[in-house]
Design goal:
By secondary structure, the chain is α/β, with parallel strands linked by helices. It folds into three domains: 211 residues, no CATH class; 123 residues, Glutaredoxin (3-Layer(aba) Sandwich), CATH 3.40.30; 211 residues, Class I glutamine amidotransferase (GATase) domain (Rossmann fold, 3-Layer(aba) Sandwich), CATH 3.40.50.880. The chain contains 24 helices and 20 strands. Helix 6 packs parallel to helix 9. The two termini are 40 Å apart.
Length: 707
């Protein structure tokens, strides 16, 4: 018995091989039938690919001029089909399928059978391998091309969740998978003779190598695309994120509604400061979703463009190097940030000590986005609120002059608002009205004026309100005085507490009258998203502020809470003996329940929106924005200032951007003193590691040679 034949008879692929060997004509007709289908598909795809539609399908009679002396109409422009590339790839793929199948059919139909059964089986295996392998490779290649052409569909599916693009993602993957499976199946019959037939062995190994290479290429391409979509293509590995934009700047640039040009006017230099400005400008362009265009203007190589900018914007000629910002298609709204405004200079060394360009450019850009108009923010006065003047002539009590200056640096116009006794009203130019810690109740006329301001539209907008109201002792120092705004805020779904809010002292918060509050990062609101996570305020005699659902017109959400885990409770009157109160809590559970002693967070701040637009911000204390807090903060900006700034942006339907974007400090690395160097790690550790490596390699060579 022939051993090769015996192996054939026991192989699982023998029926397929024997069918091709014994039914050559039938197999040939099958291949030729496939070739006809491929040919028809090729013709259809070629027609689709090379057909050019007219831009205007309107009949000629409808557009023909009635004037006999009129010049002839120009020919209709031709518009290329955006799907042409897809049709061409499909046509090339089906043409390859036609060539493969027609060749296989002709070989089987015209060629003479081999004289022996073994040779006939070998020929059948070669034909199956050639036809199946080539068809599989053609499908894989076409799948790769479609994956490249339809890559945008994968982006939309993964990045935006557009399920309608699933078909354009699935088809290339299916083609690759089916092609790989067809190639794998075509190889299997030939494996029976790979040890006995050198030709088949070369074909099998070559096909396996090609299939493995193609699949590796597919894996690398898919992995690269998916990773590129989900992982940023630039990684800032510096501890301070020096080469990245702040999250608030990113959100602001993403929500720009107009086009912005950044003309970076700098010499061609490799100095660090120049590179930092360029990196900032490119980052702004990358995160703006196409709204920001960065252009680098060199005084040497771009003299014509620089001259045009100097003629149009005189400050460019006067101040020299810096960043020119223009907004809108006409580029009329503009601002120039000079080099001196982009950096801080160390007075001792006269060298740049910090990069401040991000904060400065964001301020200018926000101002330009408002059409160069300074929105007017009114602070009510006359009822003991935080005064805006300060100095000897100021009204007695806390002031907010530093907050006023802070907001004015952010291109906001801050003015006092004193309601007259007769016909009180809010001025027409008021963008936002702030009521900060009134010591006496606002009169009915003032409250009615605020109600009209909030509810009656002025042009295309309604009024916006910020209320900062802590507890004020009532008559004879008992109870809590009213603000006069309780009814108006109730209409906005906000309830002002009427009790004193205290906290048990801790090492971090030793003053029981000044509980700490923290913004809940889980609240879905632009204000929360614009501020650093964990932003907290130190309150002083605050009150609870809770959200209700009484009026369906407004949506109120609590966003500022006392710190979770710290005990707080409520009192009807001011405490005179804290220690006695704490002892009473230890011995009287009924008292604990009545005064609400709890470690759960209490709401002290509420955001109110109307139809998706900001309406009001209510916080149960104004102490964090007072001059007293700002003076303690010294050089840094109090977090409450940023909170008020972004709240005004949100109420004005502008992307919130904190004005206090942190400067990026330069640091110089100095080599350590020789006496501090650890020579054990510097010298002996590398030597020991090298010796260990050489010994290991030598031992491995010795073991292999012994074997």
């Amino acid at each position: 018995m022939n051993p090769t034949l015996s192996a054939d008879q026991n192989s699982s692929d023998l029926p397929v091989v024997d069918f091709v060997r014994g039914q050559r004509q039938t197999t040939a007709y099958f291949f030729l039938g496939l070739s006809v289908l491929f040919l028809v598909a090729t013709v259809l795809l070629a027609v689709r690919a090379f057909r050019v539609p007219k831009a205007d399908t309107e009949p000629a009679s409808a557009t023909k001029s009635l004037d006999p002396e009129a010049p002839p109409e120009p020919p209709k422009p031709e518009v290329s089909d955006p799907k042409r590339s897809s049709y061409m790839v499909g046509g090339v793929g089906t043409l390859a399928g036609f060539m493969v199948t027609v060749t296989g059919g002709v070989v089987l139909l015209v060629g003479l059978p081999k004289p022996t059964v073994t040779q006939q089986r070998t020929e059948a295996r070669m034909i199956l391998l050639a036809v199946g392998g080539l068809l599989g490779f053609a499908m894989i290649v076409c799948g790769l091309f479609y994956f490249y052409l339809w890559g945008e569909s994968l982006t939309k599916l993964l990045d935006r969740g557009e399920r309608k693009e699933l078909l354009f993602v699935a088809v290339p993957f299916l083609m690759i998978i089916v092609g790989a499976g067809l190639t794998f199946l075509a190889v299997q019959p030939a494996r029976t003779e790979e040890r006995n037939n050198s030709t088949l062995r070369k074909l099998v190994y070559g096909t396996n190598f090609g299939l493995g290479t193609m699949m590796l290429l597919v894996v690398l391409m898919v992995a690269n695309v998916v990773v590129a979509l989900k992982v940023p293509n630039k990684l800032d590995t510096t501890e301070t994120g020096f080469y990245s934009l702040s999250e608030s700047s990113k959100k602001f640039l993403e929500k720009l509604t107009e086009t912005v040009n950044l003309y970076v006017i700098l010499p061609n230099s490799e100095e660090r400061e120049v590179n930092d400005i360029r990196q900032f400008a490119m980052n702004a362009q990358d995160v703006s979703d196409g709204k920001v265009t960065t252009r680098f203007i060199s005084p040497v190589s771009n003299k014509t463009e620089l001259a045009r900018l100097q003629d149009k914007y005189p400050r460019v000629s006067r101040d020299g190097y810096g960043i020119l910002l223009t907004v809108g298609a006409d580029e009329k709204r503009h601002a120039f940030v000079g080099l001196s405004d982009l950096f801080e200079i160390d007075p001792r060394t006269q060298r740049f000590s910090a990069f401040t360009g991000e904060g400065k450019v964001m301020k200018e850009l926000r101002f330009l986005a408002d059409n160069e108009q300074r929105p007017v923010i009114y602070f009510t006065q006359g009822n003991g609120e935080l005064n805006l003047t300060g100095g000897a002539d100021a009204a007695p009590g806390p002031s907010a002059t530093r907050l006023k200056g802070f907001l004015e640096k952010a291109y906001l116009d801050v003015k006092p608002l004193v309601f007259p006794v007769k016909d009180p009203a809010v001025p027409d130019d008021a963008a936002v009205v702030v009521v900060a810690e009134p010591q006496t109740p606002l009169g009915d006329g003032a409250v009615a004026a605020l109600r009209r301001y909030l509810t009656i539209p002025r042009g295309d907008r309604k009024g916006k309100l910020i209320v900062l109201a802590g507890v004020t002792p009532g008559p004879e120092g008992r109870g809590v005085a009213r603000t006069g705004l309780e009814g108006l805020l109730a209409e906005l779904n906000v309830r002002l507490g009427d009790k004193y809010l205290y906290s048990i002292p801790t090492q971090d918060s030793p003053n029981f009258k000044a509980p700490a509050a923290i913004i809940n990062p889980k609240v879905d609101n632009p204000i929360v998203q614009a501020l650093p996570e964990g932003t907290g305020l130190r309150l002083s005699l605050p009150r609870e502020v809770s959200a209700t659902t009484t009026n369906p017109t407004y949506q109120a959400t609590a966003f500022l809470f006392t710190v979770p885990g710290r005990y707080t409770w409520l009192e009807d009157n001011p405490i005179t003996d804290l220690e006695q109160t704490l002892r009473d809590f230890e011995s009287n559970e009924t008292l604990v329940a009545r005064k609400g002693l709890t470690r759960n967070p209490r709401p002290v701040g509420v955001l109110v929106s109307e139809g998706g637009s900001g309406k009001a911000v209510v916080i149960g204390n104004a102490f964090p924005v007072s001059d007293r807090v700002a003076e303690r903060a010294q050089s840094s900006t109090p977090p409450a200032f940023d909170l008020i700034s972004v709240a005004i942006d949100w109420l004005r339907d502008r992307p919130p951007v904190p004005t206090g974007i942190e400067s990026k400090k330069y640091k110089e690395y100095t080599f350590p003193e020789a006496s501090t160097v650890d020579f054990t790690r510097l010298v002996w550790f590398p030597l020991g590691l090298g010796l260990l490596g050489v010994t290991g390699v030598g031992a491995g060579v010795w073991v292999i040679r012994r074997k």
